[in-house]
């Protein structure tokens, strides 16, 4: 019997730990047999000229050179007011030192993740881990676990990190690599008094000296007027207060008005300064704004509405209710005027310019009607795109939010070709999507707020940004309550419960599930309402199973399955039978588990649901092994491994490899079991997770 079972495990399901299997692992990430892990380099390309800062650069280099072993990573803290050039200096130093750090250069902007002044550091850790190659399936869920995961993955690495826009040391410390051969460059507007690290050096960054500011402006503007009118040049530089951000705008503004004398331009700005009593820097930005076309000026005023750092053509078009080509032209006009920065991901607006745009918006539209209309159009656009992405990624599923109203005739909706593209779009736009939930609620658009949370469920299952998810789903619960729409009140509480129990907040999760169950009793008898009632009972069972109450979980799964049977929802019956079988296996009742999982597997095959057929087959294989039916188990385990590899699911492949190890162990093949476990650890490490020896 052992030899016969071994033959079932041979072939494609058997682990080959030599070069052939390693080649297959490389193919998972698009490489060939000689492929190497991708080394992250997250700095933007250098643009323009970098002036001075010699002393600051030398101070950082000296700290790196003098760093003592066993003292933790070097932390260089660049401090100074906004617009002074801290980020540019950090990037410049990082580019110069990058060769010292062969394991990569990472960048995280904490302001991108800041909500109401607070950063959810677990989400920042998620971005850092993603930069290190950790895929969502292997990323730990809780803050503490992610910190340990970062320590484990960086303990022997030589990494350089740029952490931008920190406000507190508590935002920085958990993001630091564990290795004392690493460097972190941190920017902040002030000293981080609570940053408790052994090897920290503060580098104050002040305004550019007049001579350096002149040189920077000369580089930006190749214009004879700068030499012909040195006094006017000095006045212009003085007015920009040594701020590189202001000098950039001033340079582009001077280039635009080439026929006017420099003295005249400076006089106009000075007159505006006397008239309005505003700083010269503001006058420079006002001048750039006044030179915009009508639509570009309107877009500039509206861009602060967008709750995301990166600005794309689609959202910009939604704000103006125009086509993406027109929006792209207007964004380019703003960039040429020096009011936007262009990056690989899209356009960005400096924080100081965002404040200026908000002030111009209040001046042009004191009642806020223009802003309110644009906000509604933006939220509607994101709701439509998120719903489209959800349908592509998850297929037809239970949702209750009505479709948002139609867009303007020129606004284009997106088309997603496949699940991967849809999930990638949801991840790339997550800050805007979660931000729109908050903005919709604040604007009293409660249906929009909870309606956006429905497709965000699909994103959450694939990318567990738990801090953002909790904030959004809490808002979704409150928004649903404001509408008093019963299905939404039930659904939103179930959605909130899962991330809560994944964080170990079982009591709070139980309160929300309990309230959802109470509300579900008042639902009607339509198919969708009874299906929602069954789903709510299932959520209670999942929570009980998570807490170890297996008899209670079985009772709930059975009750939920009976509702699905009554309404003729075959897929619901399949899912709940699968859940019952998994709990039976956890209880040690292998015969009952086999009975239930055989039924679930047969239903999945009959319904043509390939993924569920693989999942139920794998669980059935585990149950058969527990029942001592090794031959039958081996066939299913092999099929599950083939399915996981065909679909490129590293998480499922790892689970099946470890089950293969258990099956080999049961057959007395200890050497083969170790091979399976070692291969599982290799797959995990390839995708950025922690091997079993580190994941306890």
TrEMBL record:
InterPro entries: P-loop_NTPase, TPR-like_helical_dom_sf. PANTHER family: HTH-TYPE TRANSCRIPTIONAL REGULATOR RV0890C-RELATED, REGULATOR-RELATED. This is NB-ARC domain-containing protein.
